[in-house]
Every structure is written in C-alpha cells, then in structure tokens.
Amino acid sequence: MAQVDSALWFSERGMGHGGTLTGTGDMVGMSGMDETVVAPAAAGLRVEWASEPTAPAPGQPVTLRYRVTDAASGRAITDLPLDHERPMHLILVSGDLGTFQHIHPQVVGDTYSVTTTLPAGAYTLDAEFQRDGRTVLDQRPLTVGNAAATGPASLAPDLGPKTVEGVTVALAAPQTVRAGQAATFYLRPDDGRAADDGPGPVPRGGRARRGRLGG
Ligand SMILES: [Cu+2]
Predict the structure, then answer these.
(1) Where residue 16 falls among pLDDT bands split at 50, 70, 90?
(2) Residue-level pLDDT at 151
(3) What is the CATH number of the domain that holds 143?
(4) 72: exposed, middle or buried (C-beta count within 10 Å: 0-12, 13-18, 19+)?
(5) Among 142, 115, 153, 147, which Cα is nearest to 54's?
(6) Which residue intervals of 8-59 are DSSP H helices?
(7) What is the dihedral of CA 201, 204, 207, 211, to 10 degrees?
(8) Tally of CB atoms within 10 A around 145
(9) Ligand 1: distance of its center to the CA of 154 in Å?
C-alpha cells in the first residue's frame, strides 16, 4: 500500500460498529479481527424491543426502545459501559442501501431509546453494545410504511473519491476481497488544508464501518 504512512487508518475495532449488512453480501472487509461479537443470548442477556408507533409511518417520528435484561434475573440493565462515548450504537440500513442512519439510544426509564424519522422501506437494525468485554449485537428488521418501497440493492462498484461537507475521502481497497480472509481498506480524508496542518478532524459519519464477510 503506497500511502500507508499518510493515510489515516481506522481499524474495524476502532469503529465499534460491527454487524452484518443484510442484503449486501460480501461487502466490507476487515483487518486484524480480534473482537468477539455475540448475540444477546450468548452474553446472558435478553433484548426486548418495541417501536412506537408499532407500525411506523414514513416521514413520521418513530421511537425505538431496547430493554436489555439479565436473562437469569430478569433485571433491566441500564448501566451499559460507554464504548466510543456511547452505551449503545444503532445502525439502520434500508434493504436497498439507500438509507443509512447511525444513532445512539439513551437511557429512558429502564430502556435505551431513540427517536428518528425514516423513509418508507424495509430496514435492518443493528444495535451494538458492550457486555463483560464482549460486543453484543442485536439485529432485527423494521418496516416503515410500504416495505416494497425499497427494492433490491444496486451494487455497482464505485470506489472513486467522495466529497461530503467539504471533505474528500479516498478509498484504497484490495483488488480482490475473499470471504474468510483478512482484507485491509484505507480511507484517506482530505479537507483541502495544507498537509502540514495535520490530518484534521474526521467528520462524524465519515468513518469506516466493518461488516462480516460471507454473511
Ligand atoms: Cu455509534
């Protein structure tokens, strides 16, 4: 990799936002995988989930509630440790990959709750948090209005630089990515400032995301 020394490299663990993107197939690579991601049951937990309203409407606020309990005692857990400054990270992705949100439920009563607004479609919700040193992933579907509003994903490869809010991010990717084999991706943000200004801040939302291969 020619530009390793100047590239800002983010490990998949550094993002803290693992999960499987439904419908994407083999999409995102990983490097140095040393993190254990488990389902709630494997961590001795239950996750009770609810949306309000139960049938969310497009463009209308919907509150998503996660009640995490100790499976043995039934006790609600509201003291999840902070991981990247948040106790819980929630990624919402539409089936056609056209809508993506990364939001952070907060403790409300004995739940972790967040309110958002979504276009119509079928979504996958990945809620991730830490428990006893492991990363726990709760994954579930959510339909907003007409599920058929989001068709199949269009996955025409496009690895060119992208500019968002004045920051251009270039991606250096391996020629080939194979399921079960490590692959390293390099993201190089450039906000147009002189190089000796240092790398500058990385905009939120501009971070890499890890997925699992062969999902
Ligand atoms: Cu997050």
Answers:
(1) very low
(2) 82
(3) 2.60.40.1930
(4) exposed
(5) 142
(6) 12-15
(7) 160
(8) 17
(9) 25
Residues 121, 189 share a domain: no
Distance 84 CA to ligand 1 centre (A): 7
Residue 179 has what DSSP assignment?
T
List phi, psi (to 5°) of 21: -90, 110
Listed residues 125, 148, 171: the one ending a domain: 148
User: In the prediction, which pLDDT does 77 show?
Assistant: 97
- DSSP assignment of 111-157 equals EEEEEEE--SEEEEEEEEEEETTEEEEEEEEEEES-GGGS-PPP---
Q: pTM for the full model?
A: 0.66
Asked if 51 and 132 sit in the same domain, the reply is yes
Expressed in angstroms and rounded, the spacing between residue 72 Cα and the centre of ligand 1 is 28
Instruction: Determine the distance separating the centroid of ligand 1 and the alpha carbon of 113, expressed in angstroms.
Output: 14
Distance 125 CA to ligand 1 centre (A): 13
Rounded distance from Cα 19 to ligand 1 centre (Å): 12
Residue of 109, 126, 141, 138 whose CA lies nearest to 43: 138
Tell me which residue has tokens 């906000």. 191
